[in-house]
Amino acid sequence: MAYSEKLVDHYENPRNVGSMDKNELSVGTGLVGAPACGDVMKLQIKVTADGIIEDAKFKTFGCGSAIASSSLITEWVKGKSLDEAGMIKNSQIAEELALPPVKIHCSILAEDAIKAAISDYRTKNGKGAAEAAE
Amino acid sequence: MNELKAKPIYLDYQATTPTDPRVVDAMLPYFYEKFGNPHSRNHSYGWEAEDAVEVAREQVAKIIGASAKEVIFTSGATESNNLALKGIMKFYGKKKPHLITTVTEHKCVLDSARHLEQDGYKVTYLPVQANGLIDLEQLKAAITDETALVSVMGVHNEIGVIQPLKEIGEICRARGVFFHTDCAQAVGKIPLDVDDMKIDLMSISGHKLYGPKGIGALYVRRRPRVRLVAQITGGGQERGMRSGTLPTPLIVGLGKACDIALNEMAQENARLMELRNHVLKRFRDRLENIYLNGDEEHRVAGNLNISFAYVEGESLQMGIKNIAVSSGSACTSASLEPSYVLRALGVDEELAHTSLRIGFGRFTTREELDQAVDAISTEVERLREMSPLWEMAQEGIDIKSIEWAEH
To answer: Are B59 and B258 in contact (CB under 8 A)?
Structure first.
């Protein structure tokens, strides 16, 4: 299968590989996929007090397209607000990396991962904020 | 940049093998100078082609301990398997409509069996044990008075395991059941003797033993006589079992390939076995959490099938562009299903996704294998650093304890 240059670049030189402390309040973690299906994506975001994603990290078990999709989305979400990041669509990822049809599910997984990370952050901080107000 | 342009190291010998130059040399005269139709009875062009075909038939017969009259030429092992299964069942199936095979057979056997099921025949698919071998007691129990045929492959194309052919042959003979074996990966790799192993039908492939593609053979026992219904009809060539003009150059090539294999098998196997042990040791010394799929002892010399836990097979392949290997996972299909063979062994699905088949043979050098081990190990280490599953394993989290959202 011939992959696009952008995809191969993200696979060979993945951006933002790593982990953050998932217990930290400013960090949101999304873990999606399943080992039995051959893809697991862990995506983490670090969010500033005014709701901007200042850093993002990922680790992915999966094919080259899955690794590239997660690498790309970590680049895209940095500097965005949570709402903006939550609006990234899998089709944008698929288009940017020129994913072949059988690999579209990799971009869907990346979209799911960022949504899960945002949701995790909001759950943690929604609760935290409520407690602080009391 | 030159290194990038160099041809990748070929480690996919179970997919196909390069045609031995000695085989090519033997074939060449039969394209132009000696182009006759071996079925032409009236002139010397036909006679010399026929002579060449009969020499090749002898060579093929010899490597499996058969007589030349029992060898019929086909287009390859896929056709031979189709002919054996469908041909036998259609001939004997009225009285004995039952066929036994295994869940790990090659797709062409499984698909022939499925077609037979659609036509009303009964098929039993024997499971395999964790080492890839069948349980002989289960085979015995599966045979009934209605069983016409047992089909079990000799050497497995993915995991290289060698089934106990002699024991299977004895069980079948004792019950009056024909024994067919797909030996596409076995001929020329392990010693075979159809009489000693009580084999009634055997499929042979040219291109898996350094012969040309597009040629194969089916051994069909004459005493006691095995009959089958032809699947390709026409001029009645090959004792009526397979019509069509014989491709003389390809047949000469298959014969020569068998001749070379017979002479060099012992020496070649000793070399490959040493290389296999060397490769396995180097992998085991460098990497933890790797698993050999299929029995280590009952295994053909030129095959390793290894799961590199926590690293997905297709991404691993992408990182080793200069090595031509096959991935055990078939993640390119929309189904995302890993190898049905590894799952039949009971390999966990997540491990099945992490396997590579490393196949080597006559023209593989130690240097090539050393380079491959280094490249694969480096990439496994890189991808593990990127793998959330590896990270969890390092933290002592059992990935089975997590509730994954299967998609």
So the answer is: yes
